[in-house]
Amino acid sequence: MECPYYLIDVFTSQKFEGAQIAVFPQANALTEQKMQLLARELNLSETVFLCTATDGTSSTRLRIFTPQTELGFAGHPIIAAGYVMREIHAKPVENEFIQIGSVSLLLNAIAVKDETRVVFTLKTTGKLDNFVPSTTELGEILHLDANVIEQATLQPMLVNCSGEYLVIPVKTVAAFNDARFNINKWTTSFVATLASKIVLCCRVRPEDQVPNYRVRLLGKGIDVNDDPPVGSAAPAMGMYLFAEKEDGIFHAILQRGGDGKRKSLIELTLKKTAGKVDDIQIGGHAVKAGAGVIYLD
Q1: Complete domains list, the chain, with CATH
Q2: Three-state secondary structure call for residue 184
Q3: Model's pTM, two decimal places?
């Protein structure tokens, strides 16, 4: 059995940047066990399989796997899938619903000046909680001085939105780069029972421009030299940055990597009406880096 796949670089317009995602566009005949086997063989952060939808409203069902397990949600594979769907049909993907688990998302993929830009819209609710450790304890968890933890323009906060995260803002890029996860301090803190990962962020643009934030994921299972994709945390960052603001439409750019590591740029838009978050849009560019076939038999 031949299983063709694409290798897509996501949240970038340059090959060999962004996050590497494998997309299998013809996955209806694959069992869950075979999907997991293929994801393990490719050994990328995420592999996505395109199947026929089962919810009666969506055009396509996405199943997303890491080398270890299936995920209920991840941002990068959705962007990669949108790119491949546009390429297969040789036309824009316009307002198509796609199914991920029990959730249906609105997807658009269009060509802009010979580049493909993909955006998905997520109807979501989130919960914010400022019941977090002291800055001293947070500094110990990050191997940083407490005085580099930002508390003026942003504050450390727990965010539950497509995942449970502890968001910690820092004042400088130097502190952002120097942070190292202290697993011993983490496991003895109460916050380890409330969040699965830390999202470290640092604002790097002036107030009068579209805000740009450097973003890193830290936590158990992430090597000290790793800078894993942050697309799964993008909805949580949208809630964190904008959910408590007045009604309006808010924009931000999240940057992962750089400084010699693969760089991703995630475009984030949150719409709020009548005191409630209507939706979160997550978008960015994608490019095809390669294609291949895996032989199962």
Answers
A1: 2-121+285-295 (3.10.310.10), 127-242 (3.10.310.10)
A2: helix
A3: 0.93
